[in-house]
Design a protein that fits this description.
Blueprint: E1 6-9, E2 14-21, E3 34-40, H1 42-52, E4 59-65, H2 67-79, E5 83-88, E6 95-101, E7 107-111, H3 119-134, E8 142-146, H4 155-163, E9 170-174, E10 189-193, H5 194-200, H6 212-222, E11 227-231, E12 237-241, E13 252-257, H7 284-299, H8 302-316, H9 328-337, E14 339-342
InterPro entries: PfkB_dom (IPR011611), Ribokinase-like (IPR029056), Tagatose/fructose_Pkinase (IPR017583)
Domain Carbohydrate kinase PfkB: 5-245
GO molecular function, one term: phosphotransferase activity, alcohol group as acceptor
Length: 343
């Protein structure tokens, strides 16, 4: 099965609907002023961000889709000329609904449970994976595993992908659960947020949940990966990096100070009374993952690739009606302003 050089596994997609209200009141009838429909899911956002980086020709998205919501997602990627391998499911793809109160800027997420993947659907998926990985036409440089798994799948699915991945392929994770694949010795990088990183640490090994150095030290000692990258919204981000997949190898710690993205708003948007309506953080982490990995494949430099990922994530927050969209010139400007320090 012919694929591009980057294969993104986004196995839990969603049909995303954002409803904007003048003022949302719980327990009342609320009529939205605006509705925005789009594709959702971490792997799907990752793929959209690759398209924004002008790298869509390099990406194949692998996903499960079913029902009318699944058709919407497939049609979207077809319209963008993005290759996808969509395993059909008997159950429909889940809905995710975001409720935005325009008065306060508060967002509420409503997420449907995923339809359960049957044993036949799982088998079809595993066959497709082996066909991709074993096809001599393919030159897969990057495999990215993004997000949660639908019902019917567990950590063994990610372990199956990683264990069968082609040799010398860069394997990247943006997941915080079902991470047994991290112990295979074939994962290169993990990117998660601060809370997720703390959640992966055995609690008897850490005294202060805010101690980023202890968190990094624990994760680098537990898992044979080259890189652990940790984000914390607009706050400082960190990277722990070494040259090999070996828990005994020494590593370096880098701190990234991100500029205030309000300074990069268009002039018209700076006049809004509510700062929360000018910033949209949905999909920013997925954007970071996409640009980080694509830039690493291009530059072979973890430190600068992550800097680009953080810059793109920040730039994506300036798009209030789209997810994982950003302007390249904004990304470049923020990239220049990010301060990187080796600690």
């Amino acid at each position: 099965m012919k694929t591009k050089s980057c294969v993104c596994f986004g196995l839990n997609p969603a049909y995303q609907c954002t409803l904007k209200f003048k003022h949302f009141q719980f327990g009342e009838v609320n009529r939205a002023e605006e509705a925005i429909n789009f594709v959702g899911g971490k792997g799907q956002n990752y793929t959209v961000a690759c398209e924004q980086l002008k790298k869509s020709d390099n990406v194949t998205l692998v996903q499960f889709t079913g029902g009318s919501t699944g058709e919407y997602i497939k049609n979207f990627f077809d319209s963008q000329n993005i290759q996808h391998i969509s395993i059909e499911t008997s159950g429909k793809t889940r809905n995710c609904t975001t409720l935005l109160d325009k008065n306060t800027g508060v967002m509420t997420e409503l997420i449907e449970p995923s339809a359960e993947i049957t044993s036949e659907e799982k088998q079809a998926f595993e066959t497709a994976v082996l066909d991709m990985f074993n096809d001599p036409q393919n030159n897969i440089e990057l495999i990215s595993l993004c997000g949660s798994l639908p019902k019917g799948l567990d950590g063994s699915t990610y372990e199956f992908i990683v264990k069968n991945s082609p040799e010398k392929t860069f394997v990247f994770l943006d997941i915080a659960k079902n991470i047994d694949c991290m112990k295979t010795g074939k994962v290169d990088a993990l990117k998660i947020n601060f809370e997720e990183a703390y959640g992966l640490c055995p609690k008897d090994l850490i005294q202060d949940k805010k101690d980023i150095h202890s968190i990094g030290k624990i994760l680098m000692s537990l898992y044979p990966v080259k890189v652990v990258a940790i984000t914390d919204g607009p706050n400082k981000a960190y990277m722990f990096a070494r040259q090999e997949r070996n828990i005994t190898a020494s590593y370096k710690t880098y701190q990234y100070t991100i500029p205030n993205i309000i300074n990069y708003l268009e002039e018209d948007n700076t006049k809004s009374d509510n700062i929360n309506l000018r910033i949209n953080p949905l999909g920013a982490g997925d954007t970071c993952s996409a640009v980080f990995t694509m830039k690493y494949i291009e530059l072979k430099d973890f430190v600068q690739a992550y800097r680009y990922g953080l810059a793109a994530a920040s730039a994506s927050c300036l798009f209030t009606n789209s997810t994982a969209h950003f302007q390249l010139d904004k990304m470049e400007a923020i990239y220049q302003a990010i301060i990187v320090e080796e600690l």
